[in-house]
Design a protein that fits this description.
Blueprint lengths: L2 E10 L4 E3 H7 L4 H8 L3 E3 L6 H16 L8 E5 L10 H9 L5 E5 L5 H15 L4 E9 L17 E11 L3 E7 L7 E3 L17 H4 L9 E3 L1 H23 L8 E4 L4 H11 L10 H4 L6 H11 L8 E8 L3 E8 L1
Parallel strand pairs: 4-5, 4-6, 11-12
Antiparallel strand pairs: 1-7, 2-3, 6-7, 8-13, 9-10, 12-13
Helix pairs in contact: 3-4, 7-8
The protein binds oxa(dethia)-CoA.
């Protein structure tokens, strides 16, 4: 089985920064509460741009880093759970703005696991030979879905985009993905349709009034403790399973880039896996949780710092709403 080569990486985050003190101006919260429990000091917020515009900038950075023109891309896969449109797919908007006129486009949504899902799909398309140069973008505007009166949730999230350009290689690649749909109510954001369909039976208990209160209907809803517990197990299990498949133990990994949900989740899972903490990269302190964009943004930081080196065994691991989880180990 073939693997993938990362030809280039890119990222983008908006200029506006909301640090923990900014949140204590609008909520009964403080840096003293937030930082020790989450590891977050600040997050970037897209106050003046749509989600797709961040994706465009990350994609352009990745193409430049790869030394490829937009016309050479023949497939764009975008991961987002915070799209600007129901349709078209955000990948079509990115295609238009970067000028990738030869690319097929589609989006995936497995929430915070989305980048892993998109790379895994890209790997399969590349392996089949159907496509040659694949652009994967993860772009998220979580600020659009937050209830800024809910201090246990809104303080966690920020906005950003990350991208990679991928090509087939003969290097080793293993992946693992799963979902626990039974647990979906632990973390969700429901579409709120203001329908004027005259045929609806307004008295029926539709999903509109089943899951959440009127006050929450446009926003992310989560059971923080349930997600926390799931996440520790999901991260450690996903890494263990893919490592076994790869034929190594987790301690033999050179670099692990986990989804940046909470520093304590990452620390606990790292301990359970027996991995030396300095091999596990985190940027949650200054980025917050940017859902599926966490991993490619971190990958771009590491790549540009020269820390992703040939011969390394690189592990990417994600988990999130669904509840979903996924992991990849690849030879760089
Ligand atoms: O990509 C996945 C996204 N989701 C996650 O990563 C969520 C994972 N879960 C977590 O990270 C943690 O559950 C949180 C950080 C979200 C919350 O921590 P917790 O220890 O589970 O807090 P809690 O919600 O149980 O609340 C404990 C107390 C409550 O006060 P009372 O009722 O005990 O008086 C909350 O009202 O802490 C209070 N609280 C806060 N106080 C100050 C909750 N959030 C805040 C806050 N500032 N921001």
């Amino acid at each position: 089985m073939s693997g993938i080569e990362i030809l280039g990486t890119g990222s983008y985050f908006p200029e506006f920064v909301a640090d923990n003190d900014k949140f204590s101006e609008i909520l009964d919260t403080s840096d003293e509460w937030i930082f020790p429990r989450t590891g977050i000091k600040q997050r970037h917020i897209a106050v003046d741009m749509p989600n797709y515009a961040m994706g465009v900038k990350a994609a352009e950075n990745a193409l430049e880093n790869a030394g490829l023109s937009a016309e050479e891309i023949d497939l764009i896969i975008v991961s987002t759970c915070t799209p600007d449109f129901f349709y078209p797919a955000m990948s079509c908007l990115i295609q238009k703005h970067i000028g990738a006129k030869n690319a097929a486009c589609f989006d995936v949504n497995s929430a915070c696991t989305g980048f892993i899902t998109a790379v895994d799909i890209a790997h399969k398309f590349l392996e089949s030979g159907a496509h040659k140069n694949v652009l994967v973008v993860a772009s998220e505007k979580l600020s659009a879905q937050q209830d800024y009166t809910d201090r246990a949730s809104c303080i966690l999230f920020g906005d950003a985009a990350g991208a990679v350009v991928l090509r087939k290689s003969e290097k080793k690649f293993c992946s693992f993905m799963g979902a626990e749909g039974d647990e979906f109510e632990a973390l969700y954001c429901k579409v709120h349709y203001e329908s004027n369909c005259p045929f609806y039976d307004k008295d029926k208990d539709y999903y509109n009034n089943r899951f959440d209160t009127f006050a929450k209907q446009n926003y992310l809803v989560q059971d923080g403790k349930a997600v926390y517990k799931f996440a520790v197990n999901a991260m450690s299990n996903a890494v263990s399973v893919v490592a076994k498949d790869f034929g190594i133990s987790p301690e033999e990994l050179d670099l692990v880039i986990p989804h940046q949900a909470n520093l304590r989740i990452i620390a606990k899972a790292t301990e359970l896996l027996g991995i030396t903490p300095d091999k596990v990269y985190t940027n949650i302190e200054y980025m917050g949780n940017v859902s599926s964009a966490c991993i490619p943004v971190a990958l771009d930081e590491l790549n540009r710092a020269g820390r992703v080196k040939p011969g390394m065994k690189l592990c990417l691991v994600g988990f999130g709403a669904g509840l979903t989880f996924g992991s990849i180990i690849m030879d760089v």
